[in-house]
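Exercise (ungraded).
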Amino acid sequence: MISEEEVKALMLAMKKRYGLDFTNYEVKSLNRGITRLMTKHKMKGMIDLWGKILKDDDFFTSSIDDLLVNLTELFRNPDAWAMIRDEILPTFSKANEIDIWHAGCSTGEEIYTMAIVLEESNMLFKSNMLATDLSQTALDKAKKGVYSKAALKNYLRPFLKFFPDKSLEDYFEFNDTNANIKKRYTRKVTYKRHNLVELKMDKKFDMIFCRNVMIYFDSELKSRILNFLNNCLKDGGYLVLGYYDTMPNESIDIFDVHNNSTRIYKKRLTPIRERYEQESVNS
Ligand SMILES: C[S@@+](CC[C@H](N)C(=O)[O-])C[C@H]1O[C@@H](n2cnc3c(N)ncnc32)[C@H](O)[C@@H]1O
């Protein structure tokens, strides 16, 4: 059993040694990650891991994936995607371009779900998608867009709930073992390694997806990231969180709730912009 103090001490040492900051991640989740790592490398105690992770750069790099959780699905929570199609995307019907950021995109299933929804709404052609993750392994997989047939079979139910009259063959090229997302989707995506904790982004977006990433953060880090994501949205842009992501009280003031159960929020207009819009409505 690894104690909370041991986890925190290791994260602090890693931050100091490599500059990668896991110090505000939930201890429970890190604890599971550390156990995964120790089991994988047949280590008996924290002392073995401590020595290896702080002395061996390559070991540290390859360990990051074990500390992170990259579970994802195609069409995860179909009612959120239905709301995006029916209520959010129509607000961009007159826009020339739609800029979308998938922060913590993992292996790509969420990106391609959105790309398919955009295509069905006839908006893929004017969309620019940025897909980022801290894990290079997950990002490489997202970029390839190759999924095992067995994995896709698990996604069939939510997919058919969303598209009862379609088949996965409309979107993927199948071979004996795998399915490859069609090129017309990957072409719309820029893939980039990015650490949310560094709070850096040089663009503004109409929509940001940050689903099931902050569940592994403590409430202080969650608030910091929500503030940052709010700054990365254009006025009136939308933030989509995961079902298990909660919006802390201190962050709710900077967003309007579009729909609580699907975790869709809208950036609140700045007061000046609000006044200007109000005046143009009244005049
Ligand atoms: C559970 S997956 C969620 C994937 C997808 N958004 C979804 O909901 O299906 C969480 C992802 O967040 C990424 N992640 C964790 N910490 C991060 C950070 N500091 N910056 C960027 N990505 C991070 C992980 O590598 C992982 O791929």
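Further reading is listed at the end of the chapter. For now, observe: The two ends are 67 Å apart (CA to CA). Residues 68-72, 76, 104-106, 110, 133-135, 138, 194-197, 211-213, 242 surround S-adenosylmethionine (CB under 6 Å).
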